[in-house]
Amino acid sequence: MTRTAVVVGHGMVGHRFVEALRARDTDGDWTVTVLCEEPIPAYDRVGLSSYVGTWDHRELALAGNEYAGDDAVTLRTGVRAVSVDRERRVVVTSEGDSVAYDALILATGSYPFVPPVPGHDLERCFVYRTVDDLDRIRACADAAGEGAVGVVVGGGLLGLEAANALRQMGMTPHVVEFAPRLMPLQVDEGGGALLKRLVSELGVVVHTGVGTSAVADNGHGIDVTLADGTVIDASLLVFSAGVRPADALARDAGLALGDRGGVLTDTSCRTEDPHVWAIGECAAVEGRCYGLVAPGYSTAEVVADRLVGGAAEFPGADLSTKLKLMGVDVASFGDALGATEGALEVVLNDAAKRTYAKLVLSDDATTLLGGILVGDASAYATLRPMVGRPLPGDPASLISPTGEKLGVAALPDDAEVCSCNAVTKGAICSAIADGACDLAAIKGCTTAGTTCGGCLPTVKQLLAAAGVEMSTALCEHFSQSRRELFEIVSATGIRTFSGLVAAHGRGAGCDICKPVVASILASTSSDHILGGEQAALQDTNDHFLANIQKNGTYSVVPRMPGGECTPEQLIVIGEVARDFGLYTKVTGGQRIDLFGARVEQLPAIWKRLVDAGMESGQAYGKSLRTVKSCVGSTWCRYGVQDSVGMAVDLEHRYRGLRAPHKIKFGVSGCARECAEARSKDVGIIATESGWNLYVGGNGGQSPKHAVLLASGLDDETLVRYIDRYLMFYVRTADRLQRTAPWIESLEGGLDHLRSVVCDDSLGIAADLEAAMAAHVEGYRDEWKGVLEDEEKLARFVSFVNAPAEPDPTVAFDESGARKVPVLLGMPSTTR
Question: Is the full-model pTM beyond 0.85?
Fold first, then answer.
């Protein structure tokens, strides 16, 4: 007989329980009903700050959170559990109906604690917990304007996340922490001092050792009064002073609670009622609540196992934490504060390098009990699994920059590599032995790296230690990677594909390596891409310098730097569209796209556009596409810099730059971000003191939000940094790799990129700048080059043996409001 499990709450832990039960219930004994109070299903609350800027909750969605196609799971969003009748075993919902259960799983999570200070309930006071919270904070921040002050009460993990979010919204954040240091539960006095210094340098004003005594409306915002008498004139306040278990539903149902709140359970996560279980932050397992996702996942797995007849028990919790805030690494693991009797501490505080490391050892200095890392947490992945085990070397050398480092070989098989999902080194090594030879395969069969991803560097080391070689060969014709081929071309001066494949490859090439080599050749010289042998290397778009469309016609996109266009040029575009019967559309990149041109019409169309002073917009190439901008300070009352002028200058500078993939820019004249700069490969946002430079924003199937590379830049420094960034990308990225995954693939990620671009850590800045200067000097419009060369013009025909004949398969449907392409033999797509 099928039984029903009702899950109250659909956060990360609730979703994990449903997945775990469905995976274990191979006999189909259970159906599941999930009551999700929020209007959207389970999302990554740990990564909530990444919502800022994209403002798209779908990017936070947990995989499979809607249970599409699973008839055994019913998900009800926007529905709250109002009460529980334990005798009848039913849950009454906010919609007034009753849902019967055989097993009730409380996954209600926690709620933000708001200190009872006078004024805590004012309109400008918020909490930081859900997507809806961030939307409301954003609305208030936008109304306040760039540079407005936002106060965060609480300097712990969530408090610093909230401060970072305010900073990303263009505000000046103040953090107020009652304890004498930031993150008092994770770091000690020394680590807290360095953390305060690092975040202060990034524009966060820190107040420690002081409480908040009052909040008052001052007419234009709020006055936040601190216990020491300081008054902060702010636009908003965010309470992030900790959480409390959401146990009201259980309390009203008469279930026992822990001494400090939470639904009291035993180690099986079962309450005093044998039909009711509690998991996640609302569960007080043997009286103790855990506020991290890893122990929450453990409780979900325990209950899922119990419901199918298992005997799992809660194994205890790993309270280790590792995070990066505003580029600052912080990690804490084990007995970080040295509470164990007789514990010894080994500390390395390098003020010059701005790093702090501490290991806590047993009284005989042989066993690792815990540690703290601030500024550089690269050792976390290998040190954390060693907690409770004898150290294999001198403790001081393990945290010294010049000392020995623990490798994966030092980890025992039962050491947890992925603490979020309790995956051991042995489990990962077994998966590798069974044929899992890349990260995707290991994620799929072990779940390691599927939550926070912090263990992936260690997983890569295990792959390498097992002798798994992940090929970087471009294709069967070149054993080298794209980066290696770029270096070969640059060093040897080879200027043809045939010369390169003869000297460093094999065979005749393919549709993978030919366009890649063509791009490399274009990136390293100003030769026309249709000149000589290069013409035969190009794909269809580059072959005709236009985007091919679904019916075999092409689109024409003239460049409009920064979205600017003269009235005369607009008239010419209109006349061309009319005379050649083209469909026109304004694109998201602030220019006009002309659709429906046959290949033999392209030269005549471009002749008229070029004569009007326009040039190729290169919408067809793996190159700079557009530099989008708002009107900036020239016209807008909110603008603080000339965003249009900067956008025009940047588009003129980088036009024609060939790259591994397309590149898009955005320039916003203020923090209101009308140009959507933080969704671009290069995003520039104006501030009162200059420009903030963001990098690695990408759209597409896996959208990414751009991250801050440098702030407060003058015009000259901004351009210099962009030169270095783009040329470093062009030289080192893989084939068809956008800037976001490229940055993620770099050893050291954004920090390494920042050190290369801003600090010249590799000593190549001058070389990168010289390469860009050569590109700028050598730029020539590609379509103008075609029009001036009869040999290149000869390729623009539909049929080689009948150059004057148009393609008879090209057809359009003009019966509706829009002209649309028609594939002959297929129905029209007019709507």
Answer: no
